[in-house]
Design a protein that fits this description.
alpha/beta; Rossmann fold; 2 domains; seven-stranded parallel β-sheet; six-stranded parallel β-sheet; 15 helices
Length: about 400
């Protein structure tokens, strides 16, 4: 079978070709299909709740789909289905990417208390039954999860049924669900070297999958007017929004030299818009940025939370960043992520409890006032990028399909 093309890798390795050929042979031996029949590997992607879970899963799913479409007949075709909740983000993003979405009822327990925790506990049996029903209906050859409260019951159910499982761990420190799943899953694709210790020989350091468009962002010449982009995660950050708004009076002397691109989330959109207008700043404000690579192309500096996907996109795009880790993130994983970038010289980190308007204004002015420092930070960010992450995870999925 001729090698398939892999994005960002060029010619496929002999090892990768051998894996795909073994997939074809195994399916033929099991089903007795003749060579003219195109084999199908069914992959269930478990992702939902936040962009940090959904976007990397979509990148891997797209890589699998692309391989199947470009494979010469007879070859391997990947049939991919997503399992998520009815939350708006996955209900919008996953079907828009051309993948079917099956939904179940699920809710988290970590950080919950009182009646809300009891209510979510009572939902667990229903979640488990719906997960089992989804597995029976789709009959996946491999289940891929990226953490979160839905991944736990689905990956556990898949493991009990003997279905091979692959865990994607995007953070430097795995969260509660992914740590609990460590003994259950067959393989773990981790984004950071330090996370591999949690999974032992099951782990492979692949990086976090990122859309190709981020790698195509050209280097930017840093000169006035400088563009500051604020990204508080896919749902916005109230703390960052409030700090930026409060910092504007301290930046008034520089307002002719500054431009802002600000993703606020739904709740703070009107307040932030009004603040920029009242202070006389040039700003492009939106509740959600659909074309993040396009926005990054204009940015001289990005102010962001430190979610794993956000950092992978910053690295791929080669962007200097001022990071404000979310303090309530499970097991402080955002702080661990941010410190990796800080130690590499790719970012400045301000813990949220120290995020004063004066400090924020001072850091913005200092970074934009030193273009050579920005360039150095951009180069160090790019050094952390893993352009082959999706391809490597796709190969892990293929190998699991034949019990490799």
């Amino acid at each position: 079978m001729r090698a398939l093309d892999v994005r960002n890798e060029g010619v496929r390795s002999g090892k990768a070709r051998a894996k795909e050929q073994s997939v074809v042979r195994a399916v033929r031996e099991e089903t007795g299909d003749v060579l003219s029949v195109r084999e199908t590997i069914r992959v269930l992607m478990v992702a939902g709740g936040t962009g940090g879970h959904i976007f990397p899963s979509l990148v891997v799913a797209d890589e699998l789909r692309r391989r199947g479409e470009h494979s010469p007949s007879p070859g391997v075709r990947f049939e991919i289905e997503f399992l998520g909740t009815t939350r708006a983000m996955e209900s919008r993003l996953i079907p828009a990417a051309g993948f079917p979405l099956r939904t179940v009822q699920a809710a988290g327990l970590k950080g919950m208390g009182g009646w809300k925790k009891l209510r979510n506990l009572l939902l667990l049996p229903r979640t488990a039954m719906q997960a089992a029903s989804a597995l029976r209906a789709f009959r996946p050859h491999v289940v891929v999860g990226i953490g979160g409260y839905l991944a736990g019951p689905v990956m556990l159910e898949a493991g009990l049924c003997g279905i091979p499982t692959l865990l994607m761990e995007p953070n430097a420190r795995p969260g509660f669900t992914n740590r609990a799943l460590g003994p259950i899953v067959r393989k773990a694709a981790v984004a950071f070297e330090r996370a591999a210790d949690y999974y032992g020989t099951k782990a492979e350091v692949t990086g976090n999958p990122v859309r190709k468009a981020f790698f195509d962002i050209p280097a930017k010449e840093h000169r006035p007017p400088f563009t500051v982009q604020i990204v508080g995660g896919s749902q916005g950050s109230k703390a960052i929004n409030e700090a930026v708004v409060a910092s504007l009076p301290h930046l008034r002397a520089d307002r002719e030299r500054l431009r802002f691109i600000h993703q606020t989330g739904e709740q703070d959109y009107n307040v932030v818009c009004r603040a920029y207008q009242e202070q006389g700043f040039n700003a492009e404000v939106s509740s959600f940025v659909e074309d993040m690579p396009g926005a990054y192309a204009h940015a001289d500096l990005v102010i962001s939370r430190a979610g794993a996907t956000a950092l992978a996109e910053l690295a791929a795009g080669g962007k200097a960043a001022l990071l404000v880790p979310f303090p309530a993130a499970t097991d402080q994983h955002q702080r661990e992520n941010a410190r990796v970038f800080e130690r590499a010289g790719a970012a400045v980190v301000i813990d949220q409890e120290r995020l004063t308007p004066e400090r924020l204004a001072r850091e913005i002015r200092s970074l934009l006032g030193d273009p050579q420092r920005l360039v150095a930070m951009e180069e160090r960010a790019r050094s952390l990028a893993r352009p082959d992450a999706a391809a490597r995870i796709a190969e892990m999925v293929a190998s699991l399909a034949v019990g490799a």
